[in-house]
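Section: Multi-chain targets

For targets with more than one molecule, the full set of components is provided together so that the structure can be written out for the assembly as a whole rather than chain by chain. Components appear in the order listed by the source. The example entry contains two components.
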Amino acid sequence: MAKKVFQRPKYLKKAVFHYCPGCGHSIIHRLIAEIIEELDIGEKVIGVPPAGCAVLAYDYFDVDMGESPHGRGAAVATGIKRILPDRIVFSYQGDGDIAAIGTAETIHAANRGENITTIFVNNGVYGMTGGQMAPTTLAGQNSTTTPGGRDVKRDGFPLDLSEMLAIARGSVYIERTAVNSPKNIMRTKRAITKAFKAQMDGLGFSLVEILSPCPTNWKLSSVDACKWVEESMVKTFPLKVIKDEVEGAIS
Amino acid sequence: MAKKTKKGKITIDRELCKGCYLCISVCPSHLIAVSDKLNQKGYYPAEYMETDSKEKNRKCTGCTMCAITCPDIAIEVYRG
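Its structure, encoded as tokens over all components, is:
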């Protein structure tokens, strides 16, 4: 008798994702839904979707969601968590959302040690508006507003937000992973699980930065986009545990 | 006695597939190919080949690599 070993997780609605073919967002949505099911927190988790490609995340997750204004995910999550401290609150933000317009809110939430989890999806461009340069765009990377490649003298260096948040004393767990291969996807799942557990134990601010392929705006095929993450993006944003003060402390 | 070879099977939902072909790139047995028929969205979806592997005697083991990689959760995996 064949046993089903992989299927759509319980907390994802039976809706077709609006994301482009090969987009990392849908993989990350699935991982979060799987983790919610595994930790059995579906009844008390509240998500905060961003403005950006994932703005319609509430159409897919079958858990409570509260949309936030552009960049204010950490602030909205702070409010929800302070009113309902027994809930598990996560904000889901892209790089344009968290690293450009929402830098202040995010840094201060981390510095205050708010007991929330942030999922930071980094694809190096403004995806929804058509691939303009984001703070995280790599040096030399083409985008619609940097046609000859990002010149660091003119446009600045790629912003390493996770390292900045690691300096904040309130943050307890920060890891950077990717979703470009099955191995990295499983690592991402472990990292998000750890971040959620850190929050459930009330330890403080946790963040998982996920390098995610954007084949449409990078103008690559899905398979080449995954290779590009491995070859180029990882050099600027190395995959590692940036801060871990929860090892041994979480149940 | 336990069997040495694991038997697996996958199903791909033609209408959910958007033709990114990441599953084809990760299948260790090369058992997934591009369909020659369009789906309703206008993509050529990935298709599971029961036995037609490029390398002979390669069978699906139900390793779930394709399903882990599939962004659109079009793949379901069965084992046993």
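Residues 24-244 of chain A form a domain with the Rossmann fold fold (CATH 3.40.50.970).
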